Amino acid sequence: MTRLYVHPLPVRVWHWVNAFGFVALILTGLQIRYRVFDALPLKAVIDVHNKIGFLLIANYGIWLVYYLFSDRICVYHPELSPRAQYRAMLRQLIYYGYGLFKGRPNPHQVGIYRKFNPLQSMTYQIVMILLVPLELYTGVVLWDLQRFAGTVDLLGGPRVVSSLHVALCGVFVVFLFVHVYLTTLGHTALEHVKAMLTGYEEVEDAAAQAPPAQTPAASLS
What we know:
Fumarate Reductase Cytochrome B subunit, two-stranded antiparallel ribbon, mainly alpha
């Protein structure tokens, strides 16, 4: 086994702030939408929800700046050949649905510049580049409907914006459960959680850990 520094400090800070922040948004959002706990004052819950939302907007900025100006951005790059990418995704799906339960080895070997398997890289691109910004933006719009009246009208009215915001929340709830489940698939159930605290992953093979040739040489790690 070899220990690799896969998760730099800025990524770990962003990850944990994002994780606890989104859980808090989901819980307060449920209270705002469905009044789960009648004893809690609605105004205070809305205020907490909004403050956490703006914290996560700033946190998203940390993630974006770090990856835009670091060679670690290549961890999100899919295979440039669509055929090769789809084959790799299919292999990973077969592993998760069958090979894992038969004790087969994971077809993806974690590396410093290959942190995500093909399914993860594609999923995280959709989540981080499309869904998270859309959720945060609709949240800002709902925070001040009068200030963003033009956007509200363009999207079809407050009900449509609110429904989109809640629907995206549902997607993140599903994503959260899948994400937590996948963290248990390491050599031990808590191995990946520990790695996100220390930055180090234990891998079988440390070969080919150099960054791809097209990525910049500088790193913020």
